[in-house]
Amino acid sequence: MTVNEQPAIRAKSLTKKFGDFEAVRGIDVEVRPGESFGFLGPNGAGKSSTMRMIAGVSPVTSGTLEIFGLNPATHGSEIRNRLGVVPQADNLDGELTLLDNLIVYGRYFDIPRAECVARAKELLDFVQLSERSSGRVESLSGGMKRRLTIARGLMNRPEMFLLDEPTTGLDPQARHILWDRLYRLKQQGVTLVLTTHYMDEAEQLCDRLVVMDAGRIVAEGSPRELITRYSTREVLELRFGAGSNAEHEGRLLGVGDRLEVLADRVLVYADDGESALHEVHTRGLQPESSLVRRSSLEDVFLRLTGRSLEE
Amino acid sequence: MSHDTLLWRVAPPILRSARRPQRVVERNAIVYRRTPMVLISGFFEPLFYLLSIRIGFGALVGDVDFAGRSIDYAEFVAPALMASSAMNGAVYDSTMNIFFKLRYSKTYDAMLASPLGAADVALGEIAWAMLRGFVYSISFLVCLAALGMAGSWWILASLPACLLIGLAFASVGMALTTYMRSWADFDWVPAITLPLFLFSATFYPLSSYGGLAWIVQLSPLYHGVALVRGASLGVASWGMFVHVGVLLALATVGLSVAARRVETLLLK
Amino acid sequence: MTTPASVRVLEMQMLLLKRIWKTNLTLSFLQPLLFFLGMGLGVGSLVDDRASSSEALGDISYATFLGPGLLATTAMLTAAGESLWPVLGGFKWDGSYEAMAATRLTAPQVVRGQFLWLAVRMGIAVGGVAVVLAVHPDTRSWGILPAVPAALLCGLVFTAWITAWAASREYDTSFSNVQRLVITPLFLFGGAFYPVDSLPDALRPVAWVTPLWHGVELCRGFVLHTLGMTEALGHVAVLAIWLIPGWIVCDRLFAKRLYR
After folding, report:
1. Among A1-5, B11-15, C202-206, the range of highest mean pLDDT
2. Do residues A212 and A276 share a domain?
């Protein structure tokens, strides 16, 4: 590999409109090969539309987009040949067994049959579904389906792997299995591009990410950078009981660097959460509960948009 | 697909973007490997029809005049039934099945995420429908032979004719399916195929329609029936080229519309 | 007075009909009309010239022979079309039976509601045929009035057994075979298109047992006034013998599937 490679993705003023609705409003993104890159944002931020354009299954409205230096409008098929895709909604083939799902998909890429069979078995093993290889898709749990979709997306040994909300709707255990598999891919040098509205996921998997809101990029950097830039080291969460959180705002002014009043709690941003809590007690306030935690991307998002991510 | 043949050069641009529709056929073949019973039962249906023509209708009708000679009624109707079953098979395969894959199972979304494109989906599905139709046509011929109704070796010429019928109706069927909004819309399919089946000079010669014969000639199935009947009875005429032309034109329009619509529906 | 439970099931299904009635009504009239024109008059033009044929048909035109039989075949085809996928779908895909069972409806009530619904659907389709028969001078007769319920009775036999089949299945793989291997041969050999006397000796007794043949005979007999009281009662009895066990099987299967 040379240092001066083509970027895997290069987007300039990329825009997507559906009728009058502007889903993506002119974003600039550049992803380097081997990097793992995330689009973080709430539902409707324009992440999925962006991903579909990158995957070459949605025409660009305006701006430029290059994948591996190629234009998806003219070289869609060549681009898709080098991509692996895990869409948000599973589109596994319900009429085929697990093994056949992978083999048939591999054949779409013109991979010789024998090679497809070998690779399919290997990948079923990788996603821990070997025992079910002759079963039907409908018998799988949500997490298993997502793993199978990941295996399917890897059939063509993609240079870049696109995952749209890979762990949405999965239970914690299934998420951890998935993260582990994705982490291994990252170690193998596959470029990972994922969208998520989970900050822990972004922190776990992404070297670099952009925060999207209402079709625009509102911040960019590594998870750590974003946290240092837009938040404090620690956060103190205080709960004063239903409906009375806002009343306490005045008496908390000056504690920590910044306050954020939510419906169910007050967030106090401070580099030292314990001393902030001490200050709260000194002022004679008695929260029903208090918690000191490390700052996360959730706090970054709250800071940038004034809204919580998972609503 | 070879890119310098005449057929390729006259094909509409959208169809020329196809790369490997055979992979779509391969996928369907793997699915059907598991349900051979559907294909086997397809063998019995024409058998029933042929038997009822021979036992029942044949006895009532006797002989009919066709192309200047008097032929047995069963011999007259059998090729038309073969053409109709090619149409029905093609329509059956290219409507509900494709609607399900298009709107519910998202089979095509997965294909379009790979290097395959909309033209591969359209061409592949149509090729598959033709292939299945071909199997049905062969089993139809076997039935004919088994019942001693095969006549001469000319009957083999009806196979390519049936393939062409399959191509035309599968293409139009798929094109129309892309416009369907719900399962209820499919109730209209028999409203189209039944009159075609009954009024395409299937059960009685064109001359029986008198002054309405020109309406019958508007039916695409009429051209299919005429082709298969001519082929299996060994009656060749220049009119055959017209029949082939009509079916090819339908196929081209149907295929292009189908590919274009898959693109607008799924690549948005 | 409260509405009977099965009628409430019917009401739910009628909501569906409200959405699709235009298509349904048009098609219900169209299909038998086309068969009557295409086969009755069309093939009739070839048949009616031959002396030997009118003898086989009993000195009536082919259209007159065929028309009344279409009442019964239409009921059968409607039953087959509306009792395979929709019934399995009610259990598996849209869960509408579960929803009914979750209210206070019992399995037999759900079954009765389903049959009532099918009677409505068949009634619309058979009504279409009746109108066609009433318009054509050769088949216009008061006998159409009793022939319609006779056709419905015949259709109910198919409704019961096909519903039972669908309710006992986990997948729909066999459904097109039911259509192709059961319904199609009955349609073709059940005596609607030509007298069963033309069937080979070995097949004739088979036709005599099928519910469709009894339905066709009843309808034709009523419309053409060729049926004696005893004969009519005989046909009705055979249809009842077919219907009752099918109905019981449905009740059992629905109970097993809904309350397991």
Report:
1. C202-206
2. no
Range of the domain at A127: 9-222
Q: Which residues contact B81 (CB under 8 A, 6 or more apart)?
A: B46, B49, B50, B53, B140, B202
**Overall domain count for chain A:** 2
Whether residue B112 is contained in a domain is answered as yes
Residue B7 CB partners (closer than 8 Å, separation 6+): none
Question: Is A206 among the domain residues?
Answer: yes
The CATH number for A73's domain is 3.40.50.300
Which of B41, B49, B60 is best to mutate for the C interface (most C CBs within 10 A)? B60
CA B223, B226, B229, B234 dihedral sign is negative
pLDDT per residue over A116-126, tens digit each?
999 999 999 99
Answer positive or negative: Cα dihedral of B267, A156, A69, A5: positive
Task: Give the whole-angstrom CA distance, residue C168 versus residue C170.
Answer: 7
**Could you give phi then psi for residue B3, rounded to 5 degrees?**
-100, 5
In a domain, A105, yes or no: yes
Inside any domain, residue B121 = yes
Is the CB of residue B86 less than 8 Å from the CB of residue B225? no
pLDDT in tens, A261-285: 888 889 999 999 999 999 999 998 8
Residues whose CB falls within 8 Å of the CB of residue A276, separated by 6 or more in sequence, listed in order = A234, A236, A255, A256, A268, A270, A292
pLDDT of A24 reads 96
Give me the domain span that covers residue B165: 6-266
Residues 133-152 on A with a CB inside 8 Å of B are 152
Q: State whether A165 and A127 are in the same domain.
A: yes
Q: How far is CA C223 from the centre of its chain?
A: 17
Confidence of residue B102 (pLDDT cuts 50, 70, 90): very high
- Residue B37, chain A, CB below 8 Å: the answer is no
The answer, for B103 touching chain A at a CB cutoff of 8 Å, is no
Lowest-pLDDT range of B2-16, B106-120, C28-42:
B2-16
> Cβ atoms within 10 A of the Cβ of B70, count?
10
pLDDT at C161 over 50: yes
Contact C116, C156 (CB under 8 A): no
Q: Taking CB atoms and an 8 Å cutoff, what residues of chain B touch A57?
A: 109, 112-113, 266-267
Q: Quick count: other Cβ atoms within 10 Å of Cβ C77?
A: 22
Domains in chain B, number: 1
For residues A180 and A256, membership in a common domain is answered with no
> Is B142 part of a structural domain of the chain?
yes
Which pLDDT does position B1 carry in this prediction? Answer: 45
Burial of B91 (0-12, 13-18, 19+ CB in 10 A): buried
Q: Stretch B141-163: mean pLDDT, rounded? A: 87
Predicted ipTM beyond 0.90? no
pLDDT of res. A119: 96
From the CA of A140, how many Å to the nearest CA of chain B? Answer: 15
Q: Do A122 and A215 belong to one domain?
A: yes
Q: Give the H/E segment covering residue A67.
A: strand A62-67
Lowest mean pLDDT across A291-295, B12-16, C224-228: B12-16
Whether residues A13 and A146 fall in one domain: yes
Residue A307 lies in a domain: no
For C228-240, how does the pLDDT look when each residue is reduced to its tens digit (9 = 90+)?
A: 899 999 999 999 9
**A112 CB within 8 Å of a chain B CB:** no
b/e C232-241 (16+ beta carbons within 10 angstroms → b): beebbebbee
Contacts 24+ apart (CB under 8 A), C247-253: C247/C111, C247/C115, C247/C160, C249/C160, C249/C161, C249/C164, C250/C111, C250/C160, C250/C163, C250/C164, C250/C167, C251/C107, C251/C108, C251/C111, C253/C164, C253/C167, C253/C168
CB contact under 8 A, A104 and B26: yes
Quote the Cα angle for C248-C253-C259, to 5°: 125
Pick the more confident residue, A110 or A308: A110
